[in-house]
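Repro case for the chain-ordering regression, as requested:
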Amino acid sequence: MKIKIEKRLNTPRYLSLVVPILSIFAALLIMFIILTIFFMGRMGSFQGAFSETVSAYKELIAWPFFNQYGLYSTISKMVPLAFVALGLSFAYKMKIWNIGGEGQLYMGALAATWAALFLFRGITSPLLLITLVAIFSAIAGALWALIPALMKAYAKTDEIVVTLMLNYVAIFWVDYLVYGPWRDPKGFGFPGTAAFPEPAMLPTFFDGNVHIGIFIAIAFAILLQYINLKTQWGFNSKIVGDNIKAATYSGIKVKKYTIISLVVSGSIAGLGGGVQMMGMQHRLMHGFSPGYGYTAIIVAWLAKLNPIAVIFVSFLFGGLLVGNDQLQMFYKLPISLISIFQGLVLFCLLGGEAIAAYRLKIEKAEEATANE
Amino acid sequence: MDDYPILEMKNIQKAFPGVLANDNISLEIKRGEVHALLGENGAGKTTLMNILFGIYHPDHGEILINGKKTVIHSPQDAINDRIGMVQQHFALVPSFTVAENVILGLKNFGFIIKTKQVEQQIKELGERYSLPVHPKARVWTLSVGERQRIEILKLLYTGANILILDEPTAVLTPQETRQLFSAIRKLVQEGSSVIFISHKLDEVLEISDRISVLRNGKNAGTLNRNEVDRRTLVQRMVGRDVLLDQEKPKVESGPVKIEIKDLSVKNDKGLMAVKNLSLKIHGGEILGIAGVAGNGQKELAEAIYGLRPIETGRIQMAGEDLHHRSIKKRIQSGLSFIPQDRKSIATCPNLSVMSNIFMKNAIPGLKKSSAWNMQIKQMHEKAGELIQNFSISTPSTKTRVRYLSGGNLQKVVLARELSNNPSVIIAEHPTRGLDIGAMEFVYQALLEEKKKGSAILLLAGELYEIFRLSDRVAVIYEGQIMGYTPPDPSYTEKIGFMMAGTREDSIHEN
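-- result from build under test --
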């Protein structure tokens, strides 16, 4: 018997569901081994390490998904993820690789803080103030993405590098402000601004545990899905994404599409920053994002760039983040292990995708020998 | 012992995922014959030859050389078995001389290279087989025809006596083809065997002793030259009778639809590819542009369509200057373009048939569809209609076009380009790589548009196609029009001279 690996002609539909699930399981499995080894170092015996890992895994899954308060945290964590991932998937549709979600999120948060604390200090109508702050954060994210967009369209620079680098610039900008001019004098030296005024805080529900940002994200997902499916923009962006030459030939202005897609992508991520400020944080702080902008890349990818799927995947990843926090708190795991886990998930997903493009073909023995 | 055929391929089978490229093919090559492999694109010719040359390995079957079973693992094995192949794309180093390129192809050229000796031998070989090249010439200075000669000399130098020529005439002028043929005849006289791969009937009929026709990966029969004519070959190739020579519809020519004045365009290297070219096409007229590939045809087509900036000159459609119009505007004013490269320019491989048909968002007849509310369902219906009209064979309107065959892909392009009521159509090699059935479909579709009053600029490599469709023939050479002739095969020689750069007025007929 001989086993041959050959490329699939077309991928069956069930695989698009099965592959991600199996991939995540594979990541969980590998992580299980790593954690067991880690705990063995701490506890000295395999048995102890194994049961410790099992209970850690229980915590990882039970708290964020099956506990009321855990679920609240999950939903809160998923909001910034969903916003950034929605923005990224908008650009990724056109094969424009915006890696700058983190920076755009930070710039959105920065602009929101500027608007809420300084520019529109006196406004007392929550609706008006929230709208203004939201618009400011979206514009900031858009401008931050406009830089790589113009560079890509007119100088053919690589957007991956530029967007990635701009993340650090954005983070340092925020750090400068929260350590310097914007630091709250009453903040006991803590690197953060003063709290937002009451009217600039998003309404909440579930006894103040969840803010309405989740609904804004869902509304955006539906809007983006509509744009993808029913508008000329969505139609043309698929053409640009698949074959730029064909797009030019079809009379699509590729430069315009490049710029708009990056700018819109940045504005949604920026809005995510604004919503995070108004809904969760209520003040700009050093390092307020535990890498939402990067995790969102995985989210967008796992959702196959489908905006509706982004919401569900964000929920899953929000839960993972919450679970990770639990592990950090109760099992004293170093944060680098958490990063390893996220890396594993991405790694397994991409690997799963690649493997799913092939199939095994088993040939009968006599044919195989006749071949030799 | 000499009764053995020099080469036998028995029951060769080779499968690629989803395609059986070679299905139980047997082939026998005699000593001293020109054996043509004729077949449509995708019939399995190149696969079979790549197996013979050791690039692919067959799933089944065996190869016998001089009656001895041989396994060819690599091109090196093939060369050791005295088999040589000239690929469609030459493998020459442009900055090396002819002799150096020949040496490069040798396995053991020793520590000290005997260039002088090689040069002498090349010269002798060239004279013997009437393949004249200067051994010291640098390859980049040579024409395509001369480069091909070097490739053949390379094979002869390594001692090959089975020569595989893969579509050798595709890049040649008629005169160069003639020279190649006389070389082939000499080679055969001296006892070599030549496998001549082609899909051009006339050439195959002219040069070969025996013809094997491949169809759908099978050998549809090996025939002696004197037993066949065009019609039987066509039948074998496509498995049915195709009307090859039909009357052109007579159409009264209308007003001038497109006029080009003193147009100059640069190519990708920044050199002038189209030089002060002027032409005019009336409604209901097809102007065929004949020429060897790479003489500015592509640049001309792209400049008219707006894909390439123009240096000087003017392009007018219906009296209006196109200079500052975007491609979108040109499309809207009725300019259609069927590019040669349908895979990389004219279609999106991973998108559906429907998306590809509506790629330009320009097909009329959709109600209530707007940029913010596209009627996707209606678009699928309309696409379904066009699939019927253009007899595109596809499982559904949602199938990704990468799964379509070349002919069906071209029909998708036609469905899009011709459903926009075009007033001017640029057709660049519209049948390249298509089988005869699909070719005829393209011809009919273009003639139909001519009847409707479109002006058509046809850029084609094959004269047959130009004669078949055009009302006038212009010959292009290095970006300039050398002259015009009527679309009649009796002008072939004159066209050939013009294709090689002689101006119409300096050709003296005798």
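Ordering looks correct now. Confidence is low (pLDDT under 50) at residues 365-372 of chain A.
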